[in-house]
Amino acid sequence: MEAAAAAAVRLWVKTEPFVVGVLPAPPPARLGPHYLRKMAAYARARAAEGCFPRLSWPRWRHIACGKLQLDRGLAWLYFELFHSLLRPDPPHSLEWAEAEATCASAEELERERSKLSVDTLQFLLFLYIQQVSKVSLRTSLIGEEWPSRRTKSPTLTGKSASENKIWNDQDHRAFVQSHLLEMLELLLEPEQLSASSHSTHSSLVSYEAVCALSFLIEGTVNKSRTVHPLHELALWQSCPGQNGYSKISRAFSFPKLESWLRSCLTANPFGMTACLKSGKKLAWAQQVEGTTRRAKIACSTCVVPEVFPMVIMSQVYKQTLAKSSDTLVGAHVRIHRCNESFIYLLSPLRSVTIEKCRNSTFVLGPVQASVHVHSCDNVKVIVVCHRLSLSSTAGCTFYTLTPTQPLILSGNQAVSFAPFHTHYPMLEDHMAQVGLATLPNYWDSPMLVCKESSDTSVFRLLPPSDFYTFVIPFEMEGDTTEIPGGLPHAYQKALNQREQNVQIWQKTVKEAGLTNVACCCG
Question: To which protein family does this belong (predicted)?
Answer without folding.
Answer: Belongs to the TBCC family.
